Amino acid sequence: MNTHTWKCAIFIFALATYCSDALADGSASDEIAKYREMISDGNPAEFDEMRGEDLWKKPSGPNKTSMQKCELGKGEGIVKGAYAELPRYFPDTDRVQDLESRLLTCMTTLQGIPEKDITSKPFGNENYKPDIESYVAYVVGQSKGVKMNVPLKHPKEKEAYEIGKRIFSYRAGPYDFACTTCHGQDNLRIRMQDLPNFNNKKDSQAAYVSWPAYRVSQGLFRSFQWRLNDCFRQQRFPEPEYASEMTIALAMFMATNANDAIYAGPGLKR
């Protein structure tokens, strides 16, 4: 059993222990908070960050080019602090892009990888780890400790924010759900998981800056696009296309509402 597997096993055992205690004394939120604090110095997402950094510098794709010339908004090749200022408008694509859509642009234009080869399987499982997910882990890790400062100046940035705001409140599907169904008021919970209220600035900030994250129950690093897709799944909506305008708009709305918070990802989730 490798180091990564051992660490995951320990985390899952610790979570089970804490959840058992929580059920006994009725303080689930407090116990889960203690669990997260206990393991906060050993997030397995570090392995994904390291893999992402190695891949970032390695020539890949048909063009045998690295990602070191990828422009994430702070200048060619600058990764430090870039995630804290995304999504944003990019003149070369004439559109607002979040991290994953921007990485997709770099992988297709710099490395020459066909877009369909990336978007057909953008999320990992126990047997498969896509490069773009590792790139995400590396880039977000380079903004840890940086204050969120997503721009809202360009007309297309403002438009994306307004679209994202409307989508967040849009009710539809077989259960007439919206994002606000779970995230529009205080003191809501799914099982033992407290749900952040995005009408509350503090909740918005705390929730956003903890993603992307390592999911202990799955033993996998998960991107923000994956998190949004999973929410749509739970609403019984069709799964959004990877790096779609809709998910970018949602990310713009949520990221802008998190401005001034200190980015703390990659996070660690149950």
Please describe the topology of this protein.
Elements lengths: L2 H23 L2 H11 L6 H13 L30 E3 L4 E3 L1 H11 L5 H5 L11 H11 L13 H15 L9 H5 L4 E3 L2 E3 L5 H8 L4 E3 L4 E3 L1 H11 L10 H13 L9 E3 L1
Parallel strand pairs: 5-7
Antiparallel strand pairs: 1-2, 3-4, 5-6
Helix pairs in contact: 1-2, 3-6, 4-6, 7-11
Structural overview:
The strands form three sheets. The chain has a three-stranded mixed beta sheet. Strands 1-2 form a two-stranded antiparallel ribbon. It has a two-stranded antiparallel ribbon with strand order 3-4. By secondary structure, it is mostly helical. It has two domains: 1-42, no CATH class; 43-269, Cytochrome c-like domain (Cytochrome Bc1 Complex, Chain D, domain 2). It is built from eleven helices and seven strands.
Helices and strands: which structural class?
A: mainly alpha
Annotated CATH architecture of the largest domain: Orthogonal Bundle
- Helix percentage: 40-55%
CATH superfamily of the largest domain: Cytochrome c-like domain
Gap from first CA to last CA: 22 Å
As for the number of domains, it is: 2
Work out the helix count: 11
What would the keywords be for this entry?
two-stranded antiparallel ribbon, 270 residues, 2 domains, single chain, globular, 7 strands, 47% helix, Cytochrome Bc1 Complex, Chain D, domain 2, mainly alpha
Short description:
This protein has 11 helices and 7 strands. It is mainly alpha-helical.
